[in-house]
Amino acid sequence: MIAALSTALKPLGMFIRGGFHITGEDHVPGDGQTMLLVGNAGSAIFDALQKAHPDGPHPLDDWTKDKLTQLAVTFEADVLFPFGGAPWHPFQQWAKRADTTYPSPIQMLIHPEYGLWHAYRGALVFDEKLELPVSISARNPCDGCIKPCVDACPVQAFSDAGYDVDGCAAYVKSDAGINCRQNGCLARRACPVGINFKYGSGHANFHMEAFIKAR
Known about the structure:
By secondary structure, this protein is α+β, with helices and mostly antiparallel strands. The protein has 2 domains: 125 residues; 66 residues, no CATH class. The protein contains 9 helices and 8 strands. A hairpin with a 5-residue loop joins strand 4 and strand 5.
């Protein structure tokens, strides 16, 4: 099952991001026994999206939903997404259960190998109790770090008080924010972890344009 699913996901620029056996505390709808998270690291998913030429206001979400729904049918699973409106599922909680991730100073979950250059695009829920993929074992890479990510933000959008979404969006929309808008968040780019997976400029710009359009 794991090998076949991995093979099917590879052309989509996605892969299995870990999994867990479901308990009542996980707040997973239905009566499934195993969850496998699906996501990406780096820009392979964006390359696959570009080849597909999807239309619509939410091309990545729509394309992801279409592809993972097809795979869910093939592998006899239910599928859940972190987008598309209520009910909102606790993907951050699931990610901490399924994968080796830690909270970073800029709110995003950091992975010891992929750094901040990764995402979770969906979750497949299976009725049976499957053997789980093995996640890496590594400490939080932010421990002992001087946290250049926090200092790199031109508007200090990240603080102990939380993430200033409005201030961030206003800056990115402005002429002064063209670097963030075209090449991706400066704070994210300042992190030294997982630099080999850093999103390409086209991929980064795609997400930043979606971010400001949503606000």
